[in-house]
Amino acid sequence: MAPYRCPPGPYERVCQVADYFKKSKPKSKIIVLDSNPDIVSKAGLFRAAWNGLYKGMIDYRPNSELADVDVKGMTVKLTFDSVKGDVLNVVPPHRAGDIARTTGLITANQRWCGVDWLTMESVAVKGIHVLGDATLAAPAMPKSASITNQQAKVCALRSPR
């Protein structure tokens, strides 16, 4: 479920697999079980690719929340259904890294680090600054290297010398 460390990442992966299948295994199908209610990043772009370049190959199913994975049975168990596949590629819910968890920096949704956006200082641990993917992104702020670079500049400008 969003946010991801790289929001377009899972959908880009679908396109990469579909491209391989189109060239090497054209009868293959891809079922995308997305726990989100819709594609969370660049939806128009991905729909255009899936309905154009990879027409008929991709079955996108929103609101498909993962409950369990039966590895031996190659089955994904959803809240109200199960889906069997020949290959499973499970993308777990993203969160800040282990170091953020073990140091008590995670404050938002038990997954992300809350920060003071004027300084990038952690709201949980004073004197610690958190940048990039580990933060709970502000509305309309993508998780990207470019944004992290800007956050670093804010941090550097606002930090005591």
Helices and strands, with pairings:
Layout lengths: L8 H16 L5 E4 L9 H9 L6 E4 L4 E5 L4 E4 L3 E3 L13 H5 L3 E3 L3 E2 L1 E2 L4 E2 L22 H14 L3
Parallel strand pairs: 1-2
Antiparallel strand pairs: 3-4, 4-5, 6-7, 8-9
What does this structure look like?
The chain has helices spanning 9-24, 43-51, 98-102, 145-158; strands at residues 30-33, 58-61, 66-70, 75-78, 82-84, 106-108, 112-113, 115-116, 121-122. The protein has 161 residues and is α+β, with helices and mostly antiparallel strands. It folds into two domains: 9-84, no CATH class; 98-158, no CATH class. Strands 3-4-5 form a three-stranded antiparallel beta sheet, with no helix packed on it. A hairpin with a 3-residue loop joins strand 4 (75-78) and strand 5. The longest helix is centred in the N-terminal third of the chain and has 16 residues, at 9-24. The protein is elongated.
Describe the largest sheet. Answer: 3 strands, antiparallel
Query: What is the assembly state of the chains in this entry?
Result: single chain
What structural category arises from helix and sheet content?
A: alpha+beta
The best one-word shape is elongated
Please report which band the strand proportion falls in: under 5%, 5-15%, 15-25%, 25-35%, 35-45% or over 45%.
15-25%
Q: How large is the radius of gyration?
A: 19 Å
Query: Portion of residues in helices?
Result: 25-40%
Give the number of helices: 4
Alpha-carbon distance between the two ends: 39 Å
Major beta sheet, strand line-up: 3-4-5
Q: Which residues form runs of ≥5 with pLDDT under 50?
A: none
Q: On the 0-100 scale, what is the average pLDDT?
A: 89
